[in-house]
Amino acid sequence: MNPIPMLRELLDAVPFKPFVLCLSDGRKLPVNHPDFLTISSKGRIFWEGETEDEFAMAMPFHVTGVEHAPRRRRKRAA
Fold this sequence. Notes:
Largest sheet: 3 strands, antiparallel
Mean pLDDT: 91
Number of helices: 1
Strand order of the largest sheet: 2-1-6
Distance between the termini: 49 Å
Strand content: 25-35%
Order of helices and strands: HEEEEEE
Low-confidence stretches: none
Radius of gyration: 13 Å
């Protein structure tokens, strides 16, 4: 199964719904915004986290699934 069409569909969804990309090595990469995940023309998957130190690259055959991202709680004003 090629996950690329499914990932492109998730990234293009309006409204965008955050998801978690699951990889064969056990990593779970949260995609909280469509800009966090890029798919190259050669099919490589590039992920960026919310900090400068969070970065990953994977080939499509390492994708084992996609999960719904847990909802983030908003901080209440004091």
